[in-house]
Design goal:
The chain is of the alpha+beta class. The chain has one domain. It is built from 2 helices and 5 strands; from the N terminus they run ααβββββ.
Length: about 110
């Protein structure tokens, strides 16, 4: 199930989108509504015994990639695997969503 974002930045770059939440929901195969609005994504993951593991290098596995949005001068999150976008949660920016990723995050179990 691919989850699409429901909140977007304004054209002037103000406001907040929920692309990261949509990417996390897709990876965990849950609905966007299952991630409480009042909770940060990091705190939500911790409540499940999970956390982000970040990297500046492409991990060559399914992950969240962050890069400059093709829609404006702000960051955007997409799902990335083997050097390409496999899911852009923004239905308005085409299949790519970002220019080039500059950081990557996997979701890992913590003990």
């Amino acid at each position: 199930m691919k989850v699409m974002q429901t909140k977007f930045k304004n054209e002037d770059g103000t406001g907040t989108g929920n692309c990261l939440r949509a990417c996390v929901a897709t990876l965990l195969q849950i609905g966007l509504e299952d991630i409480p609005e009042e909770m940060s994504v990091c705190d939500f993951l911790l409540s499940l015994g999970l956390a982000f593991e970040g990297s500046w290098e492409d991990p060559d596995t399914l992950c969240i990639a962050i890069g400059k949005s093709t829609a404006g001068d702000w960051d955007h999150a997409v799902l990335w695997c083997h050097g390409r976008v496999v899911h852009n949660p923004n239905p308005h920016t085409g299949s790519r969503g970002i220019e080039e990723p500059d950081r990557f995050f996997r979701i890992v179990r913590i003990d």
